[in-house]
Amino acid sequence: MPDNTPFVFMGGTFDPVHNGHLRTALEIQQWLDVPEVCLIPSKMPVHRDEPGCSSEQRLAMVELAVAEEPRLCADAREILSDRPSYSLLTLESLRAELGPQRPLCMVMGMDAYLGLPSWHRWEDFLDLCHIIVVTRPGYGFPEVSPMRRFSDRHAAPSAEALKQLPAGRVLLHELTPLAISATHIRRLIGRGDSPRYLMPDAVWDYIQTNRLYGF
């Protein structure tokens, strides 16, 4: 029997990983009723500034963050690759491993989703995966948005529908995200303040031990 359990992942720089990332991933895992959600840190981000520490350090922090949570995992494929961190390449890599029939779901925030038209070959994403867009309560599309039309054209009627096809659908899911940002955490550390309780203690210990972000 083929495995039709969706493989669900969140990509990002995770610079550093924090409780907002982890809580979102865990809520997605429980909502979809899948065994786990994977976090895939990017090696060479294409759409944003250079991260504040090395890719190996960001991967180590993600691994520490999920070490005691069996419903979350870390995936090192982008860090280990010698290619730029284009989402399309990651999707192709995952699809080659999963086979043509297993559902593949990529989770992203609304801000990233609205910026998809600037991403490399973004129109091909739905040939390879479903896209789950995490939205805030009360948030809607801008009045003029090509992504609204794209979403309507490919809308999935429910989370369960994502399990019936390997790819091709978009589903918006509303969460109340923790008001935590990696930028704020880096600023706290840079001015000598503690970010404890915004991230797992193991990650904060790693930052201190390795003197990251100006600590």
Oligomeric assembly? single chain
Overall radius of gyration: 17 Å
CATH-derived topology: Rossmann fold
The total count of strands amounts to 6
End-to-end span in angstroms? 52 Å
Uncertain segments are none
Question: N-to-C SSE series?
Answer: EHEHEHHEHHEHEHH
User: What is the domain tally?
Assistant: 1
CATH superfamily: HUPs
Described by the principal axes of the CA atoms, the overall outline is: globular
Mean model confidence by pLDDT? 92
CATH architecture: 3-Layer(aba) Sandwich
| Strand line-up across the major sheet | 3-2-1-4-5-6
Biggest beta sheet attributes: 6 strands, parallel
CATH class label: Alpha Beta
- As a percent range, the share of strand residues is 5-15%
Number of helices: 9
Describe the fold and architecture.
- This protein is an alpha/beta fold and 215 residues long.
- It has 9 helices and 6 strands, in the order βαβαβααβααβαβαα.
- Helix 2 packs antiparallel against helix 9 (201-210).
- The longest helix has 14 residues, at 19-32.
- The N and C termini lie far apart (52 Å).
- The mean pLDDT is 92.
